[in-house]
Structures are given as structure tokens and as C-alpha cells.
Amino acid sequence: MGQVQNNLKESLQRFFGFSQFKGEQEAIINNILSGKNTFVIMPTGGGKSLCYQLPALISEGTAIIVSPLIALMKNQVDAMRHVSNNDDIAHFLNSSLSKADILKVKKDIQDGKTKMLYVAPESLTKLENIKFLTSVNISFFAIDEAHCISEWGHDFRPEYRRLREIFEKISNVPIVALTATATPKVQHDIQKNLNMLDATLYQSSFNRDNLYYEIRPKRDVEKEIIKYVKRHSGKSGIIYCLSRKKVEEISEVLQVNGIKALAYHAGLDSTTRAKHQDMFLMEDADIIVATIAFGMGIDKPDVRFVIHHDIPKSIESYYQETGRAGRDGGIGECIAFYSYKDIEKLEKFLQGKPITELEIGRQLLNEIVSYAETSVCRRKFILHYFGETFEEKNCNEQCDNCRNPLEKTEGEASVTNLLKAVTILEETQKAKHYCAFLSGNLTSDIKAYKHNLLPLFGVGKEFDEHFWNAVIRQVTLGGLLYKDVESFGILKLTDAGKAFLANPKSFKLLKQHDFSNTDDDDSIILGGKGGVFDERLYDLLIDLRKSIAKEMGVPPFVVFQEPSLKDMCFQYPIEIEELTNIQGVGVGKAQRYGEPFIALIANYVEDNEIERPQDMVVKSLINKSGLKVQLIQNIDRKLPLDDIANSQGKTFNELLDEIESIVASGTRVNINYYINTLLDLDNQNEIFECFNNANSDDLVTAYHELDGLYTEEELRLVRIRYMSEMAN
């Protein structure tokens, strides 16, 4: 390794301004300087980069650092130039450089000025680069984001698997592999592929005790995000989304609601991406809304929260992305929204992939589903996944499951049945199969294997597969079963599991979370529910509506429809302006009927000391007012409704939906000219009177009341006329 300065702490102070090393940094650096292969697994925020940067600065020659992203290389090089006040100290070599740039980089290396050369793996494979690097003094090779080597890693890159053969062509110097996330399987893969099973392993705990983990059902998600961000006004946060389209939508809706947010995804040009990243780092923007393209190497210490709009595809991804919160040791909240539909989307992405990749992808997805749905300590679950044991009492209520634990029930019989099932099926199946087997679900696989003929088939049929999945998760965490990674998650008994079967004992099971009631809608409509539904208030509003309707001689639904009353029981509007944020209530309707309702609600709120949802208006991103104005203008011009539907790219039913929502919110719309072409006046009056005497505006009731004489479309059209004339 050549002459090395002895006093590491002096170098640490001189280059980085720190007086003390963090964790095992000093031992790692000494190991590298002594010429040994080194494998560092250090969670995000632990000071991983310094482990190779400092030895590179004080060693003879140039250290080659393999890095997966051009943006990441640029950040690292800029940081190194900043600590040394010498632009030649670090360079990167990738496809973004011109020929003149490349010549300058090579000359600085030959002149001994450059201590670190960051390269993309693709650049290393070029013959001219290999030839050049063999002619200069290399101090060591470092591989950042080394999990890219393993197919089981969350960001596998085939070109990373060629690194060892390229290193051997260049120079026989030590290798340093570094990653923030590696399960035991990934760790072994990396060492084996790099032919460095002899490496000294330094593995820090994966526990980030300043992070709080919470999973929420995906209901009113955009509204929930806005409320959360407004409660943390002025704080830095990252919001991750699965698609570029969703990134754009969420960043826009945040901006509309007065929040300084910017979008970041691979579809933006590099200048915009760099500008947005810099604005976030310099605090010109509070929030970055991003796909996973954002984050590698982002070293902003004071990110106070990370929100996942969509659940990520693996626990490694989740761990790495949440790890960008609270790097300064301060508060970091990690909130993820979860629904079954997200998992279906991620499963679709796997279709058509090679069988091994498909199986690995499914297994990683199963683990993140287990994490999202588990009711045990989330910290314990994450650390168990990375091969680390953890007592949940040490979580200190830093996850939702420890802060608000679900009830426990005795599960000895269920656990015994599960372990017996694993035994009788000879430890050959994955979790999904056992869930179907125990609940008595006759799937195609169970029929094919004739497992339905076995005595234990359906032994737990009083419970559904969701329940059995929760049992499997808790029994695995309890150490009675383990998932065999090599066979993509086949369940096998541990010694403790065999002992339990021989001598069953009490095993407390936590009630599982229910994520069945989530929004399956991809739209970004931000009206509606804020908190818990208030049944008492609803009864009072129903009575008030009935008395007002009687006084005015109209059916109750003409005053306010039921969805509007229900929304009032969530939001507690006490001013006319607030009433216009209620579902189905426009300015006209609020002014015509609103006063007695807001007076009742105001008294109710005061008498019962109700804490209303945060006083804020969530403005909708999709501003349809332009289309609505155009629609109303076209109706005023008496254009045929089918022509209007075609011009707006809608079906006729979708157009009627739109007109109904306009009318329901209090705007009068006259479509008599169109109805007159379909129905004579007597028929219209018959339908009109039917609604006038009805208790609800239900179409099915009206259809039967009128002996099925009119089509659904005709009934809808006259109902629009009725609501427009009577309610508005």
C-alpha cells in the first residue's frame, strides 16, 4: 500500500473536520490500509463513504471506486474536491465526459494528483480504459452499492457481476465492497462473486433507533399526505411514488395546496433533475416527490420524514429509502400507505421475466407484504429480515404496532396445526400453499398434489387464508419456522419448531391488520373523509333535513343527498365556505340550504367539545372547472348530448355522471331540449312526479314504481331535470 500517514485522527480532522471516528470506521480503514479485502455492511447514514475516502486520500496511487449512478459520482466528486480544495483530487470517468475531459482525467492520474477515480461498471469494461489503468498505480478497488452484484439484491445489475474479472486484468490490489443493505444471502453472493470469501466483514447493526415506522391503509391517501405535510410545515421530506405519472400528480397537488414541492424522476431531463435536487438540498423546496431514481448518495442530514405513497418492491428498497430520514440522529418518521392493489401492480411488473428473476421478485414481494401486514414490532421484523435478533421492548414505541398494539389471543392450537401441516407436506411448500391447505381452499396446486386427500386438509377452515398468513409470519418471527431462501421461500421447521411439536405450549398470536378497506381508485380527488364517522351527528342532520324538506314541500334528497350528510359528519363544517368543500355541495346549494345545517353543526361541535379535523382546505389537483364550463356552455348552446360526449372523449354514461355531479353541487343545468327529443311531456311529468313523491332518488326504485316503462337512461335524464329545478 506504500507509505501511509500514521495518525488517522489527524487526517480525519484535516480532511473532514471530525475529531472522532464513528462506529467501526477506524478499524475498517486500518484493515484497508493493511492490504486486506474488506466487506462493509453499514446502514444508510452510518458514514460508509468515509471508510474508503480517507484511506484513498492518504495512500499512494489512485483508488478506483465503482459507482452505479452518474449523479451519485458527481455528488461524491464534488464533496471530495470541497474537502481538499483541489479539483484534481477526485475525478469520475463515465459516458457524460467529452474526449478532452477524458484526456484531462487520465493526465491527472498519471501525474499522481488524483486519489480517487469514480467509474461506472460499463466504463471499466472498455479496453482502452483497462489498458490505461494497468499502466498506473492503483491503491485499491472499492465497490459502492455492492448489493447490485446479487440477483437477490434489490437493485441487481448484470454488469456488476463482471467486476472481479476486470479487476484481475488491471491490478492485484485489495477490494473493498460496501453496501447499506444485505441479507445473509446477498452478503454471501457478493463475497463469492468477487472471490473475496477471505474478506474481513464489518457489519453494523441495522437498527436506526431514531426512526419511527408506520403503515397506514391507503384511504384518502393524497388528502392524508397533505394533512401530514402541513402538520410538519417547513420540515424537509421525501415522498416516494411508484410511477412518474403519480410523482407529477402528487407534486402538483402539493403545490396547489401551498406546499413547496418538486418532482424528481428519470423522465425529467438531467438539468431539471439536478436543479430540483439542488433546490431540495439548499432548502429552496421542502418536499421532493420522487420515484426510486432519487436518493442514492443524497446526504441531506435533516430529512424529517419519508412517505411512501406506494409500497416498495422489497424490504431492502424500503429500508434504504426510509434510511434517508433522520441521518443527523434527529427525528425521522417513515409513513407508508399500503393496499392490496399496489401488490397486484408490482406483480404485473414481474410478468414475462425469466423464471429465476420472477421467483426472486415474488419472494421479495412476499416479504414486503408480510412486513406491511404484520402486527408485531416492525423494527423486530426488519432486523430479523437482515439476520439480526431484536427484543421488541427495545423499540420504545418507535413503530405503530408497539405504540398501538393489537389484542393477543391464545394460538397454541393454530400454531400446532401449522407445524403439523408443514411436517405432513414434508417441508416442500411455500406459505401460500399452507394457507390454502389449512383453510380448506381447493386450489389447482392442492388438487394436482392430491393434498386435499390428506387428513389435515381444511383443519383450520374456520379461519381464512389471511389469518393463516399472519400465523406463518408470527411463527417464523418466533423462530419455529424459517424460509429457505435458496428454494424461493419454502417453509421448513427449525429445531425449536420440532421441539414445539413434540411438546406444544402457549403461543400468543396478535390479531392481524385489515387492509381490505382501501381506495382502489387511482384518481386524485381530494374531497371527503377526514376522521371517524359521527353517528350521533348524522341522526341529527337526517332529522333537520326531513323538517326542511317538509317545510319546502320537496323530498329530503333534494335538500342534501346522503353522501353530503355523511361527509359533514367527518369534516364538521361550521361556515358556508367550509360547506362548499363537502362532497356534492356547490356554492349555490350551500347558500340555499346551508345556514341551518352549519348552525346545528357549530352548536354540536361546541356542546361536545369536538376537535375538528385540521382547519385546512385541500384543493383538488384535477381542476375540471374548464371542462365543466365548456360542458355547460355546450348545453346552453343546445348541442346534442351525444355530440358533447364525443367531443370530450367520454361515453354517454360518463357525460351523465358529469352533469349529475354539476347539478348535485348546486348548479342549474337545463337539458329539456334534449329530453324533449326522447320523451313527450306527459311521460316526463310522470317520471318527475315519481321522484317528487319518493323518499330517495334511487333509480331502481323509480324503475319498479313506473312498472319498467322507462329505460335507465330516460330516468337519469329526467332525474337531472328534477334535481336541477327543485334542488337548485
Describe the structure.
It contains 34 helices and 17 strands. The strands form four sheets. Strands 3-4-2-5-6-1-7 form a seven-stranded parallel sheet, with helices on both faces. A six-stranded parallel sheet has the order 8-13-12-9-11-10, sandwiched between helices. Strands 14-17 form a two-stranded antiparallel sheet. It folds into five domains: 8-203, Rossmann fold; 211-403, Rossmann fold, CATH 3.40.50; 408-510, Winged helix-like DNA-binding domain superfamily/Winged helix DNA-binding domain (Arc Repressor Mutant, subunit A); 535-607, HRDC domain (DNA polymerase, domain 1, Orthogonal Bundle); 625-727, ATP-dependent DNA helicase RecQ (Arc Repressor Mutant, subunit A), CATH 1.10.10. Helix 2 runs parallel beside helix 3 (48-58), helix 19 crosses helix 21 and helix 23 crosses helix 25. Strand 12, helix 13 and strand 13 (332-338) form a beta-alpha-beta unit. It is an alpha/beta fold. Residues 1-5 and 520-530 have low confidence and may be disordered. It starts with 7 loop residues before the first helix and ends with a helix.
